[in-house]
Structures are given as structure tokens and as C-alpha cells.
Amino acid sequence: MSNKNVPNAVSHKCSVTSGSRCRSEARASGRNLKLEIEYDGTNYCGWQVQRSPQSSVHSPQKKSIQETLEKALRKILQEKIRLIASGRTDAGVHACCQTANFKTSSNIALKRLQKALNALLPPDISISRIEEKDLRFNSRFAAKSKTYRYTVLNRSYPSALLRNTAYFYPYPLDIKLMRKQAKVLLGRHNFSSFQASDKIERPAVRTIKSINVTKDKQRVYIDIEADGFLYNMVRNIVGTLLEIGRGRLAKVSLEKILSAQDRRLAGPTAPAKGLCLLKVKYK
């Protein structure tokens, strides 16, 4: 991180002996700030740090988006910060508008904080907006839905410029069939067939509010809005739709895959790099 004209935003003064307690009390009745964050997830282990016993000095763990942001906020605000995100994104996944909130005792102006953060953060993370929310606001629990976009580069040769943000898929695709099959997923269903194995057993029922498959010249976009997503759910749906569009799952309809609640029947998991969190809806 660089140190370009970063303002010191500490405005709450306490004595040396009671400083820690004073700051904690101030945060409890201070401000609750919500960030809108854009990032390229290529060089990160995901939003949240995943501690691995195998990581070492010789093979260090990649940084997370969360710890990179918290480090910058600590430097500016001179207090410990804990970010609460709308949800976690995996390694290599991007975001146009991730949201996260945190409590602070500082009275720094929002525009000043945004400028300071963007001066400190690496070029693959940017703060597009900061707003003050009610103290009870929680980015995760207040979210009504999230929209993800998956981008497929559908042509005969790869792209040097899109290599980290689109999945190169050189096979002919039946977009009309993919669009028709995708509509089967609309509504409230058990999505076990599209759930990757997880360390924690989670309920598999989710509601997909919209799903659109579009093609713009050589790019195919698959946009999915839902009230929540299972682990790798979007990437597993995309992998299945691509297999259907290619004609490799012609004998098995998406309706049968969905009702079977069996991950083995669905297609492969599409690579993380094509996935981007587009929007988090709160109202």
C-alpha cells in the first residue's frame, strides 16, 4: 500500500490509561458506515481470509479483500475495524458493488474517508461510495437479494485482455435452449443439485427471482438474482447450462437435475474468474 496524503482521522481523544475502553464505548454509540466496493478478485483468496495450516513462509496465503480493507481503515481511523459484508466471494471472484459496514468513533467526512481509502488501497480495490446508516444496519442481514453475472467468452480464440474476467469457452452454444432451460430454476426450490460440498451443512432452499441468458457478439452473460446462494451455486448452474447449450446434457433436462437433488447429475463447476457480484439489494 502507498502512503499518498492519507489524513489522520482520529477525532475522539482519550487518556492513555482509558483509551481502549473509551474508543470501545464511542464505537457502541458512534457511527455505522456502509461501503460500496469494487474489486478484481484475481490476486486474493476471496473476501474473507481462509487460514490454512499448510501455508508457510515459502508458500504464503494470499491476502483477502477484507483484511486489505481493514488494514487501510485502521491506518486512517487509528482504531480496530471489523467489516461486515453482504456475503463472501470466493478466490478469483470479482465485485462491481460488494457492500460492507463497520462501526467507528471517528467523525471524518465521508468524502475525505473515501479519498483516503482509495489513496491507500491497491489498484484492484476501489471504494465507489460511502454512506452513514442507522446503528442497527447490518450489510449481511439487511440484504434482500444479490445479483451475480457470469461472463463467457464464446469464440474460437482466447483473449489476453479478458483472461481474468471471462471464461473462454470455444464451443458452439444453443443460447435459446439455455435460456429456456434456465427458466426452470425460477422460484423457490431445493438447489442441492447445484451445491458444492461444504464443511457446514446448510439448508438448500433458495429463491431465484430472475435468471437471464443473453449474448452480445462474442460474450454470453448469465445473470442470476436470488435471496441467497449456496456454496458455488452460481458457478454450478453456469457449468450445467453450458453443458446443455453445447448438447452434452441433451438427454437430461434441467428440471430433472433440479428435482433429483443430486450434485452428480449437474454439470461441472465453471471457473471463478467469470463470476462478478453485480448488485446487493436492500429495499
Features:
283 residues, alpha+beta, 22% helix, 26% strand, Alpha-Beta Plaits, globular, 10-stranded mixed sheet, 2 domains
What features would you describe in this structure?
The protein has 283 residues and is an alpha+beta fold. The protein folds into two domains: 115 residues, Pseudouridine synthase I, catalytic domain, N-terminal subdomain (Alpha-Beta Plaits, 2-Layer Sandwich), CATH 3.30.70; 137 residues, Alpha-Beta Plaits, CATH 3.30.70.660. The protein has six helices and ten strands; from the N terminus they run H-E-H-E-E-H-E-E-E-H-E-E-E-H-H-E. Strands 1, 2, 3, 4, 5, 6, 7, 8, 9 and 10 form a ten-stranded mixed β-sheet that branches. Strand 2 and strand 3 form a beta hairpin. About 6% of the residues have low confidence.
CATH 4th-level superfamily of the largest domain: Pseudouridine synthase I, catalytic domain, C-terminal subdomain
Secondary structure tally, helices: 6
So, CATH architecture of the largest domain? 2-Layer Sandwich
Report on the biggest sheet: 10 strands, mixed
Number of domains: 2
Radius of gyration: 21 Å
CATH top level label of the largest domain: Alpha Beta
Poorly predicted regions are 9-20, 22-27
